[in-house]
Amino acid sequence: MLAPVRSSVGVANVVRFGMDYSAVPDDVIESLRGRADPSSGLHRLACPQPAPGDRVRINAGPFRGLEGVFEGKTGPDRVIVLLDLLGQRARIRMCSGHVVPGCAA
Questions:
Q1: Among 12, 68, 71, 90, fewest CB within 10 Å belongs to which?
Q2: Distance of alpha carbon 59 from alpha carbon 66, whole angstroms
Q3: How confident is the model at residue 105 (pLDDT cuts 50, 70, 90)?
Q4: Nearest to 99 by CA among 42, 55, 34
């Protein structure tokens, strides 16, 4: 039953707790399927690009978990995010893959 999953590219193992496999709720699965990019044979998740002024969340790196304002792209893989740090607004350049658009304000 798990052979197709384990043989998928990028899968290292299946999440489990002891001998029990972790269950993923149906609504999460449907949400992921709805975000899949049908034009890609790899079914990568379609991630909309934020527009200048959009609120974003940092999901990796030293600023992980912080929210800021998307300012713009500086290259194909780099963006500038405005973060409030120690009472000052700072312009931070980072990898575009570390920014998740659409977080709640």
A1: 12
A2: 8
A3: very low
A4: 55
Cβ neighbors of 94 (< 8 A, separation 6 or more) are 58, 61, 63, 78, 79, 81
pTM metric for this prediction: 0.53
Task: Give how far Cα 47 sits from Cα of 2, 13, 56, 66, 102, Å.
Answer: 28, 25, 13, 19, 10
How far from chain centre, in Å, is Cα 6?
23
The pLDDT tens digits of the residues spanning 4-21 come to 877 777 778 888 888 888
**Structural domains of the chain, ranges and CATH numbers in brackets:** 55-101 (2.30.30.30)
Mean pLDDT (the chain) is 81
Burial class (CB in 10 A: 0-12, 13-18, 19+), 54: middle
Query: In 3D, which of 46, 47, 51, 84 has the Cα closest to residue 66?
Result: 84
